[in-house]
């Protein structure tokens, strides 16, 4: 992973700079599942003290992207098949209903359309993953239930890491993009129930094609 030292970039804080850079590197696969994240090495790479690195790693642990163990330090999380199935099962239970409620409230679809275009023109997997996350969030963001929104937002980074690892084995993002376009078309037609059904089918399809039966760690070695 190549990074700029903090002194070379104009960012609001050392911690946010380290956090954003590490998150992007993990989701894009530049930091591989299981890779050790050594505070002293990262601090030297970023040109900061160990404190912002430690804070960033704790934040990443909170979002499920990093595992920190006493005496052994931090590592990029490796998702087992059981982990991934549990995450996608929760997503399948919650997201379609959140999308239905959000669309029924008359939420604007401009942000979803913009995210779809950004995913289409993305130059790498990290940009595509961010755009895809933004697409889904734009559909459920106005669900009207803060706890439901918080729960789905809490799954976003883990879902992105699982997706990125799956795309490494099977570059199927064009298939997912086609499903996204169909979902948006139905949402635009004023059919919240139909769009929610398509979201459920989309999540279920990804689970069957990429997760169920994958004995290697999700995002880990083939």
Question: Describe it for me?
Answer:
By secondary structure, the chain is mostly helical. The protein is built from nine helices and three strands. The protein has helices at residues 14-28, 39-46, 50-62, 81-104, 110-120, 125-140, 146-169, 173-188, 192-211; strands at residues 36-37, 66-69, 73-76. Strands 1-3-2 form a three-stranded antiparallel β-sheet. Helix 4 packs across helix 7 (146-169) and helix 8 (173-188) packs antiparallel against helix 9 (192-211). The two termini are 21 Å apart. Mean pLDDT is 86; it is low at 4-12 and 215-222.
Helix content: 55-70%
Strand order of the largest sheet: 1-3-2
First-last Cα distance: 21 Å
Shape: elongated
CATH top level label of the largest domain: Mainly Alpha
Biggest β-sheet: count, sense, barrel? 3 strands, antiparallel
* Low-pLDDT runs: 4-12, 215-222
Number of strands: 3
Strand content: under 5%
Radius of gyration: 18 Å
CATH-level-4 superfamily name of the largest domain: GntR ligand-binding domain-like
Order of helices and strands: HEHHEEHHHHHH
Instruction: Report the total helices.
Output: 9
- Could you name the CATH topology of the largest domain? Four Helix Bundle (Hemerythrin (Met), subunit A)
User: Can you tell me the number of structural domains?
Assistant: 2
Write down the overall mean pLDDT: 86
Question: How would you classify the helix and strand content by structural class?
Answer: mainly alpha
Q: Which CATH architecture of the largest domain would you pick? A: Up-down Bundle
């Amino acid at each position: 992973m190549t990074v700029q030292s903090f002194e070379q970039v104009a960012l609001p804080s050392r911690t946010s700079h380290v956090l954003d850079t590490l998150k992007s590197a993990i989701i894009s696969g530049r930091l591989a599942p299981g890779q050790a994240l050594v505070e002293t090495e990262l601090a030297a790479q970023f040109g900061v003290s160990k404190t912002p690195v430690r804070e960033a790693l704790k934040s990443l642990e909170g979002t499920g992207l990093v595992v920190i163990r006493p005496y052994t330090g931090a590592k990029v999380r490796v998702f087992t098949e059981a982990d991934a199935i549990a995450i996608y099962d929760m997503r399948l239970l919650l997201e379609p209903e959140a999308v239905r409620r959000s669309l029924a409230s008359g939420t604007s679809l401009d942000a979803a359309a913009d995210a779809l275009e950004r995913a289409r023109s993305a130059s790498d997997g990290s940009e595509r993953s961010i755009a895809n996350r933004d697409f889904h969030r734009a559909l459920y963001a106005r669900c009207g239930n803060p706890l439901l929104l918080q729960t789905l937002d809490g799954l976003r980074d883990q879902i992105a890491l699982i997706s990125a690892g799956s795309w490494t084995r099977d570059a199927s993002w064009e298939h997912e993009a086609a499903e996204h376009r169909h979902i948006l078309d139905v949402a635009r037609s004023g059919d919240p129930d139909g769009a929610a059904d398509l979201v459920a089918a989309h999540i279920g399809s990804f689970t069957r094609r990429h997760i169920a039966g994958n004995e290697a760690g999700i995002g880990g070695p083939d």
